[in-house]
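Response to reviewer comment R2.3. The reviewers asked that we include at least one raw input/output pair. We reproduce the pair for Phosphoribosylglycinamide formyltransferase here without editing.
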Amino acid sequence: MTRRRVAILISGRGSNMASLIEAARAVDFPAEIALVLSNRPDAEGLERAKEAGIATCAIDHKAFPDRESFERALDAALREHDIAFICLAGFMRVLTERFVERWSGRMVNIHPSLLPLYRGTQTHRRALADGVLVHGCTVHFVVPELDAGPIIAQAAVPVVPGDTEESLAARVIVQEHRLYPQALRMICDGTARLEDGRVAFARGWDAGAALHSPN
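Raw output as returned:
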């Protein structure tokens, strides 16, 4: 089995990063976490990655005069480590169209909502304000438009009476930690691939399952 070399881009503590690193420890996982890169030299996740024996790199965006020069340095580091796929995991920088197109079909992100609902920030607050009964998270390919890329995988959780942003976020993050490794496995083993602007799947799945809220 050929393991694809993956870089995880972070800006903070690296919660989803940790779940990807743990999943990649399995001998049958088709990805190797080869690099953790942050735009913040003080990001807590860099130390966590070092402790796991993974190469790290800090490229401070504040040290560059514009986004283009920052992204050239970012791209150079990724190529130096022979990266095949990028996972964004709390990477708090908006990437330019040029960079996104360069990594088209090879860069994915996880977002805390059931896209296309609630793109952008404050997703849990907006879900509660709208009174939805189902919320969740999405892994998608990255495209120039924010949170608009083709969907690879989703996980749903019920929204229950008395939920706060914090309680709902805590339930969603559990599913993020399960979903992201699953989606990375799918793109690295060829189960899911970007084809003509949509995700093509190499296998089917059980269509009988459903989440009911309230159940």
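The chain has a mean pLDDT of 95. Residues 15 and 89 are 8 Å apart (CA to CA). Further pairs are available on request from the corresponding author.
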